[in-house]
Amino acid sequence: MMSQHRNTGVTETPDTGTAPEVSEERRAPNLIDEQHILDAAYGLLLAVGMRRMTMADIARAADVSRATLYRRWRNVREVVATLMTREWTTLANAELDVTAGIARERLVGGVVRLVRASRSNRMLRKIIEVDPEFLLPYLLHRRGTNTTRQLELIEHGIRQGIADGSIRDGDVAVRAESVLLTAWSFALTGPALTEEAEQLSALDDQLHDLLERYLAP
Fold this sequence. Notes:
Elements: E1 3-4, E2 11-12, H1 34-48, H2 55-62, H3 66-72, H4 76-96, H5 103-119, H6 122-130, H7 136-141, H8 145-164, H9 172-193, H10 197-215
Antiparallel strand pairs: 1-2
């Protein structure tokens, strides 16, 4: 698929997964911070969406060569996947890593906070609005890095709850998957039912009640 530089009308060849010939790097590869590149990609994603981004766009925004990008990622989708892993690892660690209260309260409260934070996350909203097909493989066909990490955190919380008696005993993995699937439905589908802040807050209260009743002894 051909793409165009914004406001220039100049066409660019598609990303093929093969690094183009570049005579020299703008900077030595070992001096380039990957987070700097991801920050540049994040800004582009919010501005134009994933489908309108090219590796050349990211390279210009990050002030690196395309060859540097191709050494780390094969295409824009892989850059965005890495960006999503960074974003959701930060969110999950912030919302699920709580130490106060009994384990069930910590886990349920953390999951509800993660749903709320995900639903209002600018990057997720942009992908859902402009490039929703990017999410489909992770929802329908395979487990991604983010899913694995979130399940690990939920399983850890469930084991803590079993240990302190606040969560009933049983198959930890299956219940963690059930919790995550429920959370996803509230995060991704909630805004399709209503955009009113009060109604979304009421849905979060229902999610809290569902998880409390599901996990309680």
